[in-house]
Amino acid sequence: xxxxxGPSSSSIxxxxxxxxxxxxxxxxxxxxxxxxxxxxxxxNPSEVDDDVINSLPQLDFILDMDKxxxxxxxxxxxxxxxxxxxxxxxxxxxxxxxSALLCYSSFxxxxxxxxxxxxxxxxxxxxxxxxxxxxxxxx
Length: 139
Fold this sequence. Notes:
two-stranded antiparallel sheet; disordered C terminus; 40% helix; 3% strand; 6 helices
């Protein structure tokens, strides 16, 4: 077999150690080296000053965001979609949707009404926004 196909190759590619002097050849050492590499790559400790976060301007709540759009707003949105573009993932061209505007807009309006009041989905917007967030990565 070796004469016909040549020497067999290993599916494991060795990795150099951090100091570059030795090679990790077994899967456990290779995984340990990758863990070490990505741990150093993504661990970027930073300090956040609370005064800077507290000085950020707070925006007012937009309570109208949780209102269901009217039927005419849905129609206007469908009319304003750019035509002449390739169809999306569903394969439906914008021109087709615009040609059946009355039927399609009533379906979209009904779907929006049902989905915003669905107990499975909850409200899309409740007016309660997170004022500030902090992200910490711990290794």
